[in-house]
Amino acid sequence: MAVYTEVSDEDLRSFIAQYDLGAVVSCKGIAEGVENSNYLLVTETGPFILTLYEKRVDPADLPFFLGLMEHLSARGVTCPLPVRGRDGEALRSLCGRPAVIVTFLAGMWPRRILPEHCAALGEGLARLHLAGADFPLRRANALSLDGWRTLHAATHGRADAVKPGLAAALAAELAELERCWPADLPCGVIHADLFPDNVFFRDGALSGLIDFYFACNDILAYDVAVCLNAWCFEADGSFNVTKARLMLASYMKVRPLSAAELEALPLLARGSALRFLLTRLYDWLNTPAGALVKRKDPLEYLHKLRFHQQVRGIGEYGLTLPAGAA
Ligand SMILES: Nc1ncnc2c1ncn2[C@@H]1O[C@H](COP(=O)(O)OP(=O)(O)OP(=O)(O)O)[C@@H](O)[C@H]1O
Ligand SMILES: N[C@@H](CCO)C(=O)O
User: Fold this and answer.
1) Total-model pTM
2) 200: CA distance to ligand 2 center in Å?
3) Cα separation of 234 and 210, whole Å?
4) Ligand 1: distance of its center to the CA of 156 in Å?
5) With a 6 A CB cut-off, is 152 part of the ligand 2 pocket?
6) What pLDDT, in 10s, does the model give residues 73-127?
7) What's its catalytic activity (predicted)?
């Protein structure tokens, strides 16, 4: 469970006194997520989410994340809205951590992913990309090539303890991606972590997106590749081409992908697989025994990386190149 920082009743009462939310009715740690401490906070005026930002969030990035949620929400993308206190500020400090209250989104993330979820996700992702186009703040992707190199250096020495040969496989893949990572694809604001547990559905329809704390400016099709990995593989490791085709086709109805973006997908999917393999590996090796957080399996992403290394064309993702493309 992701509650790294315990908040005492007294600290919470004086924190909430800075808002017009009424008195606290209850505040319970949420047993999901791995990055930040999240609480379901119920006050006299309704439910909210209280987040204390932990390890991977640089406080200097919070204006980008919070501003982005406000920007997207104003353009019809349903996502949490930061709640401002009486002083007009949304971002403050609690228990020595940066902390924010955001609005509560109704809905549930899908525990069993169906093809129709993938179709809705594709459309939602494309709408997010269009809505983010005029967001004025910028944030580089801290978990792209340079960040992977740093994580690689921090995990290299112990990777083989997780799986023999993993260290060499990671070194070779990182070197290859550094050599041929695309430099001229369309960029914009991406979510960068749009896994099923960050997408809520209600009555069968996508009802909202959460967890913008990896959002940044990067290659738009990289976000599509993150979703291919997170949504289109089955629990047994097999790739579900029907889900991929539906996701990509729905995305392209809202924001068509160019031939160059489509051709780059296998490479971008390898990069995305390496990103989650490295962050999971780092956490695997560095999460203290007894921590109240469930470590995610890095090797799931080694398997996905291997899959994309074998892909020879986007036909394997259920698509054909547009007419006239090389
Ligand atoms: N605005 C919200 N409305 C409703 N529930 C929310 C909201 N924000 C977070 N939650 C709940 O808290 C859980 C964890 O939130 P979140 O995914 O943001 O945490 P995290 O630690 O950043 O996780 P991750 O590992 O996905 O990066 C979600 O799965 C959801 O159940
Ligand atoms: N979505 C990430 C965890 C949060 O970054 C993963 O599954 O590894």
Assistant:
1) 0.94
2) 16
3) 23
4) 30
5) no
6) 999 999 999 999 999 999 999 999 999 999 999 999 999 999 999 999 999 999 9
7) L-homoserine + ATP = O-phospho-L-homoserine + ADP + H(+)
HSE-CB for 86 with a 13 A CA cutoff: 8
CA-nearest residue for atom 3, ligand 2, is: 34
- Is the CB–ligand 2 distance for residue 276 below 6 Å? yes
- How are beta strands 46-52 and 24-29 bridged, if at all? unpaired
Q: Which of 227, 225, 196 is nearest to 210 (CA)?
A: 196
Lowest mean pLDDT: which of 136-145, 204-213, 282-291? Answer: 282-291
For the Cβ of 34 lying below 6 angstroms from any atom of ligand 2, the answer is yes
Tokens 């179709």, residue located: 119
Pick the residue whose CA is nearest to atom 19 on ligand 1.
Answer: 33
Contacts of 89 (CB under 8 A, 6+ apart): none
- Distance CA(29)–CA(32), nearest Å, equals 9
Instruction: Please identify, by atom number, the ligand 1 atom nearest to the C-alpha of residue 211.
Output: 18
* Domains, the chain, ordered by start: 9-103 (3.30.200.20), 115-317 (3.90.1200.10)
CA of 65 to the centre of ligand 1 (A): 14
User: pLDDT tens, 211-254?
Assistant: 999 999 999 999 999 999 999 999 999 999 999 999 999 999 99
The answer to whether the CB of 226 falls within 8 A of the CB of 193 is yes
- Ligand 2 centroid, distance to 282 Cα (angstroms): 12
Ligand 2 near 109 CB (within 6 A): no
Sign of the torsion formed by the C-alpha atoms of 225, 73, 23 and 44: negative
Closest CA to 47 of 22, 71, 68: 22
Closest residue (by CA) to atom 6 of ligand 2? 276
Q: Is 188 in the pocket of ligand 1 (CB under 6 A)?
A: no
Q: What is the pLDDT of residues 247-269, one digit of tens each?
A: 999 999 999 999 999 999 999 99
How confident is residue 137, by pLDDT bands cut at 50, 70 and 90?
A: very high
